[in-house]
Amino acid sequence: MSTVPEPATDTVAAPAPQPTRETLHYALRNPKLLIGFTVVALLLVVGIIGPPLLDNADPNEYVGPQAAPPDGTYWMGTTTFGQDVYAQFVHGLRATFLVGVVGGAIAAVIAMLVGFLAGYRGGVVDEILNMVTNVVLVLPALAVLLIINAYLGVRSVAVQGLFIGLTSWPWAARAIRAQTFSLRTREFVDLARLSGCSTWRIVFREIAPNMSSYLFMMFILLFGGSILIASSLDFIGLGPTEGVSLGLMLQSAQQWSALQLGMWWWFVPPGAGITAIVGALYVANVGLDEVFNPKLREA
Question: Is 271 exposed, middle or buried (0-12, 13-18, 19+ CB in 10 A)?
Fold first, then answer.
């Protein structure tokens, strides 16, 4: 988080944002950040442009020979039922990124609203919001998701992401609350308060910009966490009832004994895809920490 310069004494001035040129200089020279974002970007491009380029629109369609290994026609082979593994993989990438974005975005929005308000207002508001946060925090989120998904007749990727986002925000809210506590007593916030600015104006115009790097890194963690939770639900058979995802591919491969049959091409691509996305996000997050934190920057 960037340092906060002293505001002018006669006007209310927000602190200057972190120098973009300096940040970009270190970002372009950080191998962890470049490798992580490159891997995520490549997989995202495959998930976006891959499905429209396929001959078959339905990834679960029986299109080829059964249990065929990878060849020139079927790049990742086929399943026991003759489904194209590559078609399922590119569609699964799109669904995996979608659930990560939906779940991570919902969790980030709730965490910011709760964390900013609790940290800035304090008092009774802080106690109530902190109590709600603690209640949600101690709930077994995976068990709650299991129960909800089990009773839903039709489950989509968006619905799955919604429930993941509603249960994965507490730790981020507590972290934002702590950061807001440290910023609300700064001079520029006091001046904005004395000038009559509303609570949300102070939060989003004065406090949030000084936490932009921290908020971005938090979203990356929520994004990756949503993907892992969704993959866990998919693997135990509580994923979307329509379409395909990387977790559902693993579930199908396990259900139909792909490992025992030696059909490595059925379970390796989705497992490698999930690992690559989450691992690359973690590596990129470490790189961002080195870029934004002057103490961790390499010369």
Answer: middle
Residue ranges for the chain with pLDDT beneath 70: 1-19, 153-154, 296-299
**Per-residue confidence (pLDDT) for residue 1, from 0 to 100:** 38
Q: Are 197 and 205 in contact (CB under 8 A)?
A: yes
Structural tokens at position 115: 């964390």
Q: Quote the tokens at residue 18.
A: 């972190």
How far apart CA 158 and CA 38 sit, in angstroms, is 26
In contact, 97 and 115? CB cutoff 8 Å: no
**Token digits for 211?**
């936490």
Q: What is the reported pLDDT for 266?
A: 94
CA 142 to chain centre: 17
pLDDT at 3: 38
9-50 pLDDT, tens per residue? 343 344 444 457 777 878 888 999 999 999 999 999 999 998
What b-and-e string marks burial along 166-181, b requiring 16 or more CB atoms within 10 Å of the CB?
Answer: bbbbbbbbbbbbebbe
Burial class, 156, CB count within 10 angstroms (exposed 0-12 / middle 13-18 / buried 19+): middle
Interior CA angle at 251 toward 140 and 138, to 5°?
Answer: 5
Model pLDDT, residue 14: 42
- Going from the C-alpha of 32 to that of each of 18, 101, 104, 188, 290, the distances in angstroms are 21, 22, 22, 35, 9
Number of neighbouring beta carbons within 10 Å of residue 13 = 16
